[in-house]
Amino acid sequence: MIIAIDGGACTGKSTIAKLLAERMDYLHINSGMFFRQISWLMLSNNINADNYTLNLNKIKCILERYTFSSNSMTDKELKSQAVGDFGSILAQIPIVRKKVSDELHSVASQKNVIIDGRDIGTTEFPNADFKFYFIVDIQERAKRLAKERMYDETEENLRKCQDELLKRDYEDMHRKISPLRKASDVIEIDGTNMSINEIVNQLCKIICD
Ligand code: C5P
Questions:
Q1: Each residue of 100-136: pLDDT tens digit?
Q2: Owning domain of residue 167
Q3: Whose CA is nearest to atom 1 of ligand 1?
Q4: What is the CB neighbour count within 10 angstroms for residue 138?
């Protein structure tokens, strides 16, 4: 059984997917974290947004030796803006996407999974048993990002967070390979005015009824 949850950054995908997986006794896979792991790995090998195009062979060699389960990075490191921004750039490279895709399909072939990401119900698992697409108002998403980063909720900080999210959405939606898009057969969930529990209950009801 495969449940796919797609949507932009800070729309609650991972939080909901994790809780839903606990409730249903499924495995939760946060595919964005795989791209973040690869981003962290490349940055720690001195590959960055300025030089990655000159280092595609090095990227390939590093990927060949890497196993996702062996990661030693902390969530705080992976959640940083620098890691997220470069992860979004790396996510446009076919060998990077293939590395993540192979891992997703390998795990999903063995277990019941709930996978969240950008292209799970479109490119990766178009025939998933259930496909959801999360949307949330941009002001609310900016508040969530500010909270995650432990910024004060000042107008300036919220604007900074909003700009970062809009930039990430634009890049994820306009890239050539596996762009973020809403498949025609997804169930859209607008979480702007819903609590986490309400969303988990709604998804549970749709899946179990
Ligand atoms: O979800 P999160 O913000 O952690 O993802 C980081 C980046 O990884 C996204 O901005 C996106 O560019 C990329 N990503 C992707 N496909 C996925 C999940 C994440 O391209 N399935």
A1: 999 999 999 999 999 999 999 999 999 999 999 999 9
A2: 2-200
A3: 32
A4: 16
Domain count, the chain: 1
Q: Report residues of the chain scoring pLDDT below 70.
A: none
Query: Where do we find the tokens 């595919």?
Result: 31
- Helices and strands in the chain: count of H runs, count of E runs: 9, 5
Task: Evaluate if pTM is beyond 0.90.
Answer: yes
For residue 89, give the ligand 1 atom closest to its CA.
12
With a Cβ cut-off of 6 Å, ligand 1 is lined by: 9, 31-32, 35-36, 84, 87-88, 91, 117-120, 168, 172
Residue 193's φ and ψ, nearest 5 degrees, are -115, 30
- Please tell me the residue having the least CA distance from ligand 1 atom 10: 88
CATH of the domain at 103: 3.40.50.300
Tokens 């939606």 correspond to 173
Residue nearest to atom 3 of ligand 1 (CA): 9
Using the 8-state DSSP alphabet, how is residue 71 labeled? -
Interhelix angle for 155-174 vs 138-148, to 10°? 110
206 in a domain, yes or no?
no
Closest alpha carbon to 31 in 148, 131, 118, 144: 118
